[in-house]
From TrEMBL:
Domain of life: Bacteria
Source species taxonomy: Bacteria, Pseudomonadati, Bacteroidota, Cytophagia, Cytophagales
UniProt xrefs under Pfam families: ACP_PD
GO molecular function per UniProt: [acyl-carrier-protein] phosphodiesterase activity
Keywords: Hydrolase, Lipid biosynthesis, Lipid metabolism
Database matches in InterPro entries: ACP_PD (IPR007431)
Name of the featured protein: DUF479 domain-containing protein
GO biological process, one term: fatty acid biosynthetic process
């Protein structure tokens, strides 16, 4: 899953112990490698990193996600199908945000600004390359932009230009939107099961002592 999903699955300020630490860890995990990288952070932030890894592992193994990536590979995305799936699922999540957010009184723009403010205040804890990326995410409001097809197109176009040998990503939005009902069905099956897995594994519980 991509940035919006990871942030949304970090719990809530009202019910999650060490909520801000969980958010920071879940976001930072994109650039944290191995056990040594994990142990460089305080225990509460480590829980967020482990949560991120749980989300990625569950996502990669889920049958609905595998259907999505297989369809995208057949559409010409090849080894980049998983990248397109991650970003495009964030598009569906953002587009229908009130349906998936546990707090229906907080719209996507408000959620996005709350996340930007939290991460900006603790930006010094993020790996350096992620700090640079976060600057552009906040400046261009990526999280809200995901809600629109043009935002999906821009996100994948940007990746196609920044990642070596990934020019095909520029075609990812068109491939996804061409068979949108099939991908919507995949996501509708997948998301509730992912949220259940996150809640069941206890990464958002207090005094969590789960290991890698």
């Amino acid at each position: 899953m991509n940035f919006l999903a990871h942030l949304l699955l970090s719990g809530s300020p009202a019910t999650t112990p060490d909520y801000e630490d969980i958010v920071v860890g879940n976001f930072a995990a994109e650039a944290v490698r191995g056990r040594a990288g994990l142990l460089a952070y305080p225990p509460a932030v480590q829980r967020g990193i482990r949560l991120h890894r749980l989300i990625d592992t569950f996502t990669d193994a889920h049958p609905a996600v595998r259907r999505t990536t297989a369809r995208l590979r057949e559409a010409g995305l090849g080894k980049w199908a998983g990248v397109v799936s991650d970003v495009a699922y964030d598009h569906l999540l953002a587009r229908d945000f009130p349906q998936y957010h546990t707090n229906p009184t907080e719209p996507l723009p408000a959620f996005a600004q709350r996340m930007y403010a939290l991460l900006q205040a603790r930006r010094h804890e993020l790996p350096e390359r992620l700090q640079q990326m976060f600057h552009y995410m906040r400046q261009d409001d990526w999280l809200t932009g995901y809600a629109h097809p043009t935002g999906l197109e821009q996100a994948l176009l940007g990746l196609s230009r920044r990642v070596p040998a990934a020019a095909v990503l520029a075609t990812g939005a068109a491939a996804f939107l061409k068979e949108l009902p099939a991908y919507e069905a995949d996501f509708a099956e997948f998301w509730p099961e992912l949220r259940t897995a996150v809640e069941a594994d206890g990464y958002l519980a207090d005094n969590n002592i789960l290991t890698l």
